[in-house]
Amino acid sequence: MSWRVRTVLLWMFVMLCRVATAQHTVAEQYLFQAINEERAAAGLQAVTWNPTLTHAAQDHALRMRSAQAISHQFQGEPGLAERAAASGSRFSRVAENVATSSSILEMHTALMNSPRHRDNILDPEVNSIGISVVVSGRQMWGVEDFARDVQPLSYLQQETQVAQLVSAAGASSVAPSEAARATCRQSSGYAGDRPAFVMRFTSTNLNHLPPQLTSRIAQGGFSSAAVGACDMKTKSSFATYNIAVVLYP
């Protein structure tokens, strides 16, 4: 970080002291601004403040203060992904920085000088962050939880989005259906009328179809298609969309 950026951030820190709210401490606001300054300097998108991740970060920061030690997981404590999911966050990627220092400026500098922690700060795949800094005497205990958020969508919203992709790939008649939803919930086979082709897939975004499905649609030989969404069959802290696309002869 250049001296000019440091000067600006220090000025921001002083100003934040005057406007800090109960929701975000001055130290947390400083780290948030500093991280986004680092990302902007690297040509990366800013991360947004994630309240649920902040709750997870705070719980862990309090544990560190109590133990007077830094760690990503204390005895009897769930792992990072489980903690983040329990807070209500939906994510496909999650990472964490932990640190302790008597100065918030020194804390950020130390994290940026550590390759692994710097990689988390400058990870182009994350888009949100939760930060907590708690104080014990003159010592600060800080936690930065980074994530790539997965947007919460209803079944119908998921199905409508995938149906648009299937239609764009070449299907002339496609719509959500209860049979496709039931097929999605099954590990194999199908529900309802016998199909020409079935594909189940799991994804963290619904911006594109699996190549195998796109290829099969392009081959033709079907009259209509149906889309169904369902919950994951196995429990996981990571959020995904689970979809079945059924092609009918």
Tags for this model:
249 residues; Pathogenesis-related Protein p14a; 9 helices; four-stranded mixed sheet
Which second-level CATH architecture of the largest domain applies?
A: 3-Layer(aba) Sandwich
CATH class of the largest domain: Alpha Beta
Number of helices: 9
- Main beta sheet, described? 4 strands, mixed
Secondary-structure element pattern, one letter each: HHEHHEHHEEHEHEHEE
Question: Can you give the helix content as a percent range?
Answer: 40-55%
Rounded Rg: 23 Å
CATH superfamily of the largest domain: CAP
The total of beta strands comes to: 8
The structure class reads alpha/beta
Which fold name is given in CATH as the topology of the largest domain? Pathogenesis-related Protein p14a
Give the integer mean of the pLDDT values.
90
What's the shape? elongated
Distance between the termini: 61 Å
How many domains? The number is 2
Strand order of the largest sheet: 1-3-4-2
Q: Extract low-pLDDT stretches.
A: 13-22
Roughly what fraction of the amino acids lie in strands? 15-25%
Protein name: Cysteine-rich secretory protein family protein
Organism: Terriglobus roseus
Keywords: Signal
Signal peptide: 1-22
